[in-house]
Write the structure tokens for this entry.
Amino acid sequence: MARPILPEDRFTSRALAIAGELSPRNVALLIDHDLAPAAVEGGGGRGGHRTFNSVAVGAIAMIGAFHKAGMELLVAARLAGAMTEEYAAIYGRLPSNLGAFLHAPFNLRSGHSPWSRELPKVDFDDDYWLHNRLRLHTTIYKPWTALRGDMVVEIVDQTYVLTRFHDLNFSITSPVSDPLHSSPEYRIKGRGNEARIMPIHEGIQSFDFSVDKESADALRERQAAYLHAHENAVTRLRVNVGLAIRNGLDRIADDRMGRTDAA
């Protein structure tokens, strides 16, 4: 049976493999271990037709980037899954940094769309559509290029996960200590399919740190351990997450254009 024709902002597992620079076999492995990005439609085993949205594209791009940097595939998927769940719940999207193109120095009319008003209205909270308009309907988009403010993830000694922002030198506020140069986020415990991604605040009893001194001390101690590991790292993997997500969208766009030209 032929695959159904999908809306423009929906993607197959093949498209996800392209976005993440992963083999179809690797994507199938993620599906088998229930570590593939969540589908918006379909499922039912490896052979079932699945449909994915732009959040899934961002998630698979992160998986591919972490794996390319040297992480085990299943551990990379667990870390990307934890980040996707957190960002999608809070912001509804992943940190692609596509919004940077809407402001100076790229868009000199900040606050005004850099594309024609005559284009159909779409959901710009969806990274697919924002990327589509920027790439196809402006001259300001810069593919394959790191941007100021891109989220950068650093994995220290395969254990500690910290974040910061590319080409931005400012301190990150902490509720229990002086400002930090990097934000401690997760700890990776175990390897392979048994790996667990533990948020730094896991097990903290209270977030009212001004009242609960014990919780404040516990978080402060954990932050210090992350930063000590960062400064004394034997290995340190660095992944520009914002760039990885934009590159994933660009790879899908290139693939679609190539198939259109060949038709």
